[in-house]
Amino acid sequence: MVRKIVKEVFKKAKEEYAATTKTTLSKYIAEKIDEKFNINISERTLIRSYDKYILEKKEIGSITAENVDLLCKYLGYADYSDYKRKNTSIKTNNRFLYFGVLVVSVLITVFIYKNRYNPKIQKNTECMVWENNEYVKISCAKEYHPKFGTKVIVFDKKKMKNMKKVILKRSTPIFSTNGKPLYWYRKINSKEVEFFTAPGLHPVTGKTLKAITEAIFYRYVPIHSDDKDSFVQP
Fold first, then answer.
1. One domain, residues 134 and 176
2. Is position 98 within any domain?
């Protein structure tokens, strides 16, 4: 850790003082320490520290504990213990962060795998998939529709019978005799809306469909729509 401290000290000096030689930088560091803390550290000590810890000259002796404290003060710490404690804390936090990212990655992988391979679907003899405007039966061995890319789900007789996408006409009744909606919708954009014959989730996006209103009906169903064909006769 002393090597790291010495490197940080000379790096800081280079940023503060427009010099690159170890001698000039050592003189600057010694002056700054004396100016800020009124404690002397010789330029020679700093040069020897540079040679040992940055140039890695092994024959040079180690810096004293007192001088290490001074270098830590120059870096903004109370002493070596303060430097060690704060930098160790950073490393520990990084380890926890790494561990957290690893755990999340594993959970995401498991989630993706479980959604790609659903034993419940694989064991069922019947499955269905959304195809253009309605649900159709399909082999449970498939995961997605080969053309539309919609997800294969467990066969649901009620959903297959009731859920259809339709094009409404102005002459189409949109409420039952007791005032309940007969259609549900999903906005594609500000000019287009998809209409469905049953409530629930959109078969492609999975978002909840909204019950039709008169405002939606008159805004998105053209006056001359009676001349157009519909996917399913309402």
1. no
2. no
**Residue 166, H or E segment:** strand 165-166
SS3 content of the chain, % helix, strand, coil (to 5): 45, 15, 40
In a domain, 169, yes or no: yes
Q: For residues 225 and 189, which has the higher predicted lDDT (pLDDT)?
A: 189
The pair of three-digit structure tokens given for residue 130, joined into one six-digit string = 């959304």
Do 8 and 75 fall into the same domain? yes
177 and 154 in a common domain: no
Does the global pTM surpass 0.70?
Answer: no
| CA–CA distance, 44 with 47 (Å, rounded to integer) | 5
CA angle, corner 88, sides to 83 and 90, nearest 5? 100
- 137 forms bridges with which residues in the sheet? 128
User: What is the residue range of 122's domain?
Assistant: 117-162
Q: Which two tokens stand for residue 111?
A: 């989630």
In which element (H, E) is residue 10 found?
helix 2-16
159-168 mean pLDDT: 94
Q: What is the pLDDT of residues 164-209, one digit of tens each?
A: 999 999 999 999 999 999 999 999 888 899 999 999 999 999 999 9
CA distance 44 to 49: 9
CA distance linking residue 12 with residue 63, whole number of Å: 19
